[in-house]
Design goal:
With about 900 residues, the protein is mainly α. It has 35 helices and nine strands.
């Protein structure tokens, strides 16, 4: 449903086109509508030259109007032009006829029409016919004598006829104008959007427009799932095997958990379990068994048993209180409703009783005497055949005690018979109104005004009910209003007005006051109740598997204890007796028992679901949280006993090294993956296409440059992708800028500052000497510049960053010789330097103007210039800094970026020399 404001704007535009069917005015209205559209209006005023007035002035120019009108030709434009021409011709004919008469044409027609209406109202149609005949005779005499009166009257009526034709043609012109305006609006909207983008200058998409970012705020919110190739591959593997265990491996944050959740959601019956953070297969299997039983009980529509610490008395008291509250609420509505219905039907019930009581009593007595006679005849053995039938019926009735065919038969008869009986009873009760001669007489005497008013109120009531039950929401500005809040009271008011009108109107009141109406109403209510009662079914007995799951839950979640005591004795002067007490408690199931019970129960559930054409999925997530791959493999070895259940698909999320072990199975060693897993799915980082789909689904406000920025920084990892998408909005608020070069610079430098701070913390744990501590000074200096990234220190920041980014290369050696550092410290420095090199590359790409143009130029240089290669470089940093550097070098070459420090003459990243922190010029 359209928002209320948009709906009103659409109708106001149609009214405006209808009232002023002028081509220029319609075009101007379409341009204003396109300029004020939310998608276009939010772009105006963000850059110089892109104001609303400038766009309107450009669109009002002749070439744009001519082009727009030429693009909107066709049948609608032809109909509009023809209607304009016809209206002008009819107008000219009307004026010619009005000029030929000496009298005022409209006054003449008014003087003739008004008396005719008065005669019709007073004397009726007969008097009007007589008046018309007399006037016709008089006009004929005037015509015969050749007077000017006849000529003037005739021309006045001709002018009136052409005026009526003009009104009809004016309506047709207005309708044609509305239709052509709708078509022209579809042409002007993209044209105005194109003009606005052109007025924004180069890279219009790099302009950040604040919008809705609710989808980015809740990173784990359900409902945001983008199907990709991995999802389709997993579904194909499930479709090609009957059952088995499939591992899902990939880096952290690539969406393995989201994939498992979606697979469990899509499955007919699924359970998602989280692997324990510590290695405890027994506890995991215990939790999985409980989850399985609970999910199956819920799936079958039963309540999961609750194990509370309340006493039996308090539990029963709580149940009694809850039942009493439900009974009180039911009685609050049922008792008054029953009393009102009984009061309304009391008179009809008494009349029926008086009319049919004696005859029904006589009929019942006759049937009773007949049954007594038949029983006495059978008792005295006067009817042998009836005796045999009675014996056979008794034996057959006894045989039915263990079968359910008789209740099912009675239930089927009730189910299929109650609905036709109820509907028939309601229709007969309703149809009796039509057959009632007294009601027919009263309906014939209803006036036209009464019928019109009743029909109007009924239509209004039905219209308000339709809107009330539409289920959609109305948008009033920024408010979301439920239709029930608006149209619910209106529907109640319309129903009340209809009822009051029918009661206070004498004609309709006589119909409502018919003495047979209460009985008819009772018949309709009874028929509806009988028809609805046909769908009632007693709650079926609890299935065996549900009972088994309940028993298993009791076994796993409770400790059952039974105590028996026996005491005997004789109380005399000397007491002699004995006392015996026995206590029995259940033993918690061991791991083998858990495995056996779990496989048996899951197998039964899978067979039942298979018979219904459904699949069962058990997903085990977070196995990679166990620590090392050795712990994960040990965990798989322990739970391998529950795998391989027929008709059950196991999906297990594992780390990359476990997946690598499965891929190289048998070369040369074997491990738990060989016998535990049947197949494996590798979840790779998202491509730019997938990242675009993810961010677009969660926020439609991010344009292509910002999507590319988030994708490159995250390396295609969905978890980081969402985090960077939200940080883009945060950086915009911090910089108070709408330009990509300012937002990207702040984001990249902040990420670099946090990363270098983490590396410096790791380096602080190593031993340093006077000769090797220079690198720590570089970290501290660069971190200080990054914490205060203003133009005052931009030159120093770039010099230091370039020096550190190219550290370790052959052409630009660093401040510390490589052989003077330990292996661990040297590797950390190389990793930090490679990340700084990557950040410097992103700054050179995103912090300069003309990103769209430079992206096309880089793409023309080959695969190294593709935007996807930047994300690959970020991914390669997680593998090795030594393999990442050549990849970054090739990217910089494709983007025509310098291969070494060239600080002198380089364009500043900020694009401004005004320092916002120190309020002076740098």
């Amino acid at each position: 449903m359209l928002p209320l404001r948009t709906w009103l704007d659409l109708w106001w535009a149609k009214i405006a086109d209808f009232m002023e069917p002028d081509q220029s005015l319609i075009y101007l209205r379409c341009v204003l509508t396109a300029v004020d559209a939310p998608e276009t209006a939010r772009l105006l005023g963000k850059r110089s030259g892109a104001s609303r007035e400038a766009v309107l002035e450009q669109m009002r120019s002749g070439p744009y109007e001519t082009f727009s009108v030429s693009q909107c030709g066709g049948p609608r434009k032809d109909a509009f032009d023809k209607a304009l021409t016809d209206l002008a011709e009819i107008q000219e004919k009307h004026r010619a006829a009005a000029r030929e008469t000496e009298w005022n044409w409209w006054a003449t027609c008014l003087l003739i029409v008004c008396p005719s209406v008065v005669v019709l109202a007073i004397g009726g149609s007969v008097a009007l016919a007589g008046a018309v005949a007399t006037a016709g005779a008089a006009l004929f005499v005037l015509f015969w004598r050749g007077t000017a009166v006849w000529f003037n009257v005739r021309q006045a009526f001709v002018a009136a006829a052409w005026k009526g034709a003009w009104l009809a043609q004016r309506v047709e012109l207005g309708v044609s104008a509305v239709r052509w305006g709708e078509a022209l609006e579809k042409v002007t909207q993209p044209l105005v959007a194109q003009v606005v983008r052109q007025s924004l200058g180069e890279d219009p998409d790099s302009l950040f427009i604040p919008g809705e970012y609710e989808g980015l705020r809740a990173l784990r919110a359900p409902g945001y799932f983008v199907e990709n190739e991995v999802t389709r591959q997993l579904r194909r593997k499930i479709a090609h095997i009957d059952y088995g265990t499939i591992a899902v491996c990939g880096p952290r944050g690539t969406g393995k958990t989201k994939l498992l959740e979606q697979c469990v959601k899509d499955a007919d019956f699924g359970v998602l379990a989280q692997a324990p953070a510590t290695y405890a297969p027994h506890d995991f299997l215990l939790s999985l068994s409980v989850r399985l039983c609970q999910e199956y009980v819920r799936d079958e529509g039963y309540d999961v048993p609750e194990f509370t610490r309340l006493s039996n008395v308090r539990r029963r008291l709580r149940r009694v209180t809850s039942a009493g509250a439900r009974l009180t609420r039911w009685g609050f509505f049922a008792v008054p409703a029953t009393a009102l219905v009984a009061l309304g039907l009391s008179e009809s019930a008494r009349s029926l009783y008086v009319q049919y009581a004696d005859s029904l009593a006589n009929q019942a007595g006759t049937q009773k005497d007949l049954i007594q006679a038949q029983v006495l005849e059978l008792w005295k053995r006067h009817s042998v055949a009836a005796s045999v039938l009675a014996v056979v019926a008794g034996v057959a009735w006894w045989k039915t005690r263990r079968t359910a065919w008789l209740p099912r038969l009675l239930g089927a008869v009730w189910h299929f018979g109650s609905t036709p009986i109820g509907v028939g009873l309601a229709l007969v009760s309703l149809g009796s109104i039509v057959l009632d001669r007294q009601v027919q007489q009263q309906v014939r005497h209803l006036s036209f005004g009464t019928m019109l008013s009743t029909l109007f109120l009924m239509l209004a009531w039905a219209y308000f009910l339709k809107w009330r039950d539409s289920g959609s929401t109305l948008a009033v500005g920024t408010w979301r209003v439920s239709p029930n809040m608006i149209f619910g009271p209106l529907a109640a008011a319309a129903a009340s007005a209809l009822l009051l009108y029918l009661i206070h109107n004498a004609q309709t009141y006589s119909i409502l006051a018919d003495p047979e109406n209460p009985l008819r109403l009772a018949g309709m209510i009874g028929g509806v109740l009988v028809a609805r009662a046909g769908g009632w079914r007693p709650r079926p007995a609890e299935p065996e598997l549900v009972t088994r799951c309940r028993d298993h839950l009791y076994r796993l979640q409770t400790i059952q204890m039974s105590t028996n005591a026996l005491s005997t004795g004789a109380s005399q002067v000397l007491t002699v007796g004995s006392s015996h007490t026995t206590s029995v408690s259940t033993v918690p199931p061991s791991f083998p028992e858990l495995v056996e019970d779990f496989r048996d129960l899951l197998g039964r559930i899978a067979v039942e679901q298979k018979s219904k054409g459904r699949i069962v999925v058990i997903a085990i997530d977070e196995v990679d949280r166990l620590g090392s791959s050795a712990h994960a493999l040990a965990f798989l070895s322990e739970i391998k006993a529950i795998l391989g259940v027929p008709h059950v698909y196991y999906l297990i999320s594992v780390a990359e090294d476990v997946g690598a072990a499965f891929v190289r199975r048998g070369l040369p060693h074997r491990d738990a993956t060989d016998s535990s897993l049947d197949d494996i799915i590798h979840v790779q980082p998202s491509t730019l296409k997938d990242s675009r789909a993810i961010l677009t689904q969660r926020s439609g406000s991010l344009t292509e440059p910002y999507i590319l920025l988030a994708h490159v920084l995250s390396g295609g990892i969905p978890r980081d992708l969402l985090r960077y998408g939200l940080q883009i909005r945060e950086m915009q608020e911090m910089t108070q800028s709408l330009e990509l070069r300012h937002i990207s610079r702040r984001l990249i430098l902040d990420e670099l500052a946090e990363t270098l701070a983490g590396f410096r913390t790791l380096l602080s744990k190593h031993q340093w000497t006077r000769d090797t501590s220079g690198i720590l000074h570089v970290f501290r200096t660069l971190g200080g510049y990054l914490r205060e990234p203003c133009v005052c220190v931009e030159r120093e920041l770039r010099i230091t960053l370039e020096k550190f980014a190219f550290y370790g290369t052959a052409d630009h050696p660093g401040p510390v010789a490589q052989h003077e550092l330990g292996d661990d410290a040297r590797l950390l420095i190389e990793e930090a330097s490679a990340y700084a090199y990557f950040s410097l590359t992103l700054l050179d790409i995103f912090s300069s103007e003309g990103l769209e143009r430079r992206t096309r130029q880089a793409a023309g240089q080959g695969p190294d210039g593709a935007p996807e290669r930047l994300a690959e470089a970020r991914q390669e940093l997680g593998v090795s800094p030594f393999s990442a550097r050549p990849l970054i070098d090739s990217v910089r070459k494709a983007w025509s970026l310098p291969q070494g420090p060239v600080t002198v003459g380089h364009e500043p990243w900020t694009g401004s020399r005004n320092c916002p922190l120190h309020n002076d010029d740098a």
